[in-house]
Structures are given as C-alpha cells and as structure tokens.
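User: I'm writing a short methods note and want a consistent example. For DUF6644 domain-containing protein, I'll paste the sequence; you return only the structure tokens, no commentary, since I'll be parsing the reply automatically.
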Amino acid sequence: MLSWFVALGNSGLGQYMQASRWGFAVVEAVHLLGLAILGGVVLIVDLRLLGVVLKAESARTVSRGLSKVLLSSLILMILTGFALVSEEALKCYSSPAFRWKMVLLAAALLFYFTLHRAALLRTDKHQANAWSRAVAVISLTLWLGVGVAGRAIGLL
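Assistant:
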C-alpha cells in the first residue's frame, strides 16, 4: 500500500495539487459540496425510513427519485477525494483517521447498497417498521462516522 500512496503523491495530479496555490482549496470546497449533497440525500432517505418525513411517499419512491443525485455526489466525492489524498499522500497513509474513514466508507457503501436497499424495498408505503428504523439508524451512524473520521484527518 505504501508504494501506491508514494506513486499517487508523485503522480501528475499529486504534483499539481502540491504546487498549486488554490488547487487544494478548490478541490476541498467541491469535496465538501459533494458531502453536503450526499449527506442531504442520505438524511432524507433515512428520515423517510424512520417514518419522520415524506410519509405520503414510499421509501422506495423517495430513494429512487434521489438516486441519481446520490450517485453523482458520491462519484464527485471519490474523484475529489483522490485529488485531496494525492496532495498529502504520505500523511494519509500514516493517519489512523484516514484508515478509519476508508473502513467506515467501505462499510457505509456496502451497507447502503445491500441491506439499506433491501429495507427500501420491504418498507410499507405509509408505515415505518422496526427493520426500516434499525437500517436507517445504522446508515446514519455509518455516514456520520465517515464524516467525523474525515474531519479528524485534518486535526490529527
């Protein structure tokens, strides 16, 4: 893994990000915009699974309507995330917070595209059940963990 981080830091992208006066700030701003959009979509869908908002719509309909926004913001965050890591690749390699973020991100994505999706398909149109509520709480916890660990990268 170390060789991959070294190669990323020495890549053209890494060199640009390290030498650019505004590159990191602009890419980080776009990354945070993607985070806000992704977080908003996850929050809306999970609040629907909890039975708190949009009660007249099925959870599946709400999720389907926001799926392109979720995927677009996720792709945006992954692309900008690579650029951010390339700027300080060795710091990320040795950062426990970065490792936690990656583990939590993998868990959140796996959860969101498996059990979360299954809960969306099984949830009754008008009523949240214990399964959908548990899934929503786990989803929110995982995504919050990704955000907190990401923030911790800059602090540690």
